Amino acid sequence: MDAERCVGSGMCVLTVGEVFDQRQGDGKAIVLRPEPPVETRDAVREAVDLCPAAAIFLSTDRRH
Amino acid sequence: MGDPLHTVTTLPTARQPGCPFDPPAELIDTRRHGPISRYTFPGGKPGWLITGYDLVRSVLADSRFSSRKELMLHPTIDYGDIEVPPAPPGEFLHMDDPQHRRYRKPLMGKFTVRRMRLLTERVEQITADHLDAMEQAGPPTDLVTAFAKPIPAIMICELLGVPYQDRGSFQEQVGSFMNGETSDEDLIAAYTATQEYLAELVAAKRANPTDDVLSDLTDSDLTDEELKGISLLLLAAGLDTTANMLALGTFALLQNPEQLAALRADPALADRAVEELLRYLSVAKTFMRTALEDVELGGQTVKAGSPVILSYNTANRDPERFADPHALDLHRQDGGHLAFGHGIHQCLGQQLARVEMRVAFPALVNRFPTLRLAVPAGEVALRPEIADIYGVKSLPVTWDA
Ligand code: SF4
């Protein structure tokens, strides 16, 4: 998550609320589950694609 | 790719009779020629018209395209050599970063998914109040004044802290500079009155902060002038767009009875239905950008300084992105419509708009199972194409009382 780029649209929270949330103060997205459960993978991919600011990055590296 | 480059010299001024929900036929035809066309602006300046989904989205995400007001050229009116001033302080829709960011940042925390969801109950209450009033007054009624306008107006006024007694006159002023039909003189008068009102409101909040977004913002380093600009933008955005979605959306549902029945039968369909109505209607239909440098786009070179028209409504009907794009299908699975834009300017109030629509549409159609148009569909008065936001002027409806 690149908090610098995030414009607080909430698209990621709307798409996968289990994985993303927004900070109360500044509305920036936060990652609740850096290793999203398998069943949310498709939705996470969709969130990456929908993010208007290209602020979310998906790593296939298993350690991330 | 094979098609020769299409050139458009005038933008359509009307929709096909009988197709109030579809973009003008000429624009759909332009998309058919390819996602990017040349467009000659009035006055002769060459520019571009982007009608395809992928290209519209990529321009919106590209910081080489500017939103600065002083660089914009009006798509249909030739203002000659008049120099357009930069956007007034606070009106960040027409600014680039870092100025844009300075204003958007303090607002982001106020419009989060979570905060907006907390407003659901309040929206339900306001919606129920208006449905009660409709029921009591009995059919027929104009859905725009009885339902579509007041719900978003009350919500945005409460969020910003516009006192209740000021809302009527305020809404009228904002409405008159959004409808695309006000004379220049009245437009300036309405705009000035709104500006003056907001200046007073900002001063009042600074003196006596209350529990609302505007009062919260007085606690930042933003000046009164800037707060006035921000409020103007939020109000104009929050009042007119959702109101038009609610009224035009109801019209679209009434014209698609099997879709309406599906929504009535399945409350869980509401979220998806709202996204589909947003895509299908795209009431905010065009936005402008200007290239800051030469950019390769869809096989063409958009030269630095070139104005670009982004057609959201054809992008959201792009057959390469949405199967059977001209059908209203509330069960549609593919997301990613551009109704709220994309990139750094993507609608800040979108989660509020979603909550309002997710509550209001089902509540309306379930309260009045026999809801129908009170006039033939062809007689419903539509806004002219030149209005920034598309919609109906009024929507006469009736039901079995
Ligand atoms: S979708 Fe992107 S811009 Fe929107 S809140 Fe999430 S990270 Fe931020």
- CATH secondary-structure class of chain B: Mainly Alpha
Structural class of chain A: alpha+beta
**What integer value in Å does the Rg of chain B equal?**
21 Å
Biggest β-sheet strands, sense, barrel of chain A: 2 strands, antiparallel
Bound ligand species:
iron/sulfur cluster
- Percent of residues of chain B in beta strands? 5-15%
Percent range for β-strand residues of chain A: 5-15%
Distance between the termini of chain B: 57 Å
Compute the number of helices of chain B.
Answer: 15
Fold-level CATH name of chain B? Cytochrome p450
Approximately how much helix is present in the residues of chain A? 10-25%
What is the N-to-C order of secondary-structure elements of chain A (H for helix, E for strand)?
Answer: HEEH
Largest interface: A-B, 23 and 26 residues
Overall strand count of chain A? 2
Overall pLDDT level of chain B? 94
CATH architecture classification name of chain B: Orthogonal Bundle
Mean pLDDT of chain A: 91
What name goes with the CATH superfamily of chain B? Cytochrome P450
Give the quaternary arrangement of the chains.
heterodimer
- How many domain modules of chain B? 1
The number of helical runs of chain A is 2
GO molecular function (chain B): heme binding; iron ion binding; monooxygenase activity; oxidoreductase activity, acting on paired donors, with incorporation or reduction of molecular oxygen
Protein name (chain B): Cytochrome
Pfam families (chain B): p450 (PF00067)
Family (chain B): Belongs to the cytochrome P450 family.
What does this structure look like?
The complex is a heterodimer of chains A (64) and B (401). By secondary structure, chain A is an alpha+beta fold. Chain A contains two helices and two strands, in the order H-E-E-H. Chain A has helices at residues 11-15, 41-50, and strands at 20-22, 29-31. A two-stranded antiparallel ribbon of chain A has the order 1-2. In chain A, a hairpin with a 6-residue loop joins strand 1 and strand 2. The radius of gyration of chain A is 11 Å and the shape is globular. Chain A starts with 10 loop residues before the first helix and ends in a 14-residue tail after the last helix. With 401 residues, chain B is of the alpha+beta class. Chain B has a single domain, classed as Cytochrome p450, CATH 1.10.630.10. Chain B has 15 helices and eleven strands. In chain B, the strands form three sheets. A six-stranded mixed β-sheet of chain B has the order 1-2-3-9-6-4, sandwiched between helices. In chain B, helix 8 packs across helix 9 (184-207). The longest helix of chain B has 32 residues, at 224-255. Chain B is globular, with a radius of gyration of 21 Å. Chain B starts with 6 loop residues before the first strand and ends with a strand. Classes of the chains: A alpha+beta (64), B alpha+beta (401). The interface between A and B is medium-sized, with 23 and 26 residues. Iron/sulfur cluster is lined by residues 6-12, 22, 29, 51-53, 55-56 of chain A. Chain B: One of its GO terms (molecular function) is oxidoreductase activity, acting on paired donors, with incorporation or reduction of molecular oxygen. Chain B: InterPro entries: Cyt_P450, Cyt_P450_B, Cyt_P450_CS, Cyt_P450_sf. Chain B: Belongs to the cytochrome P450 family.
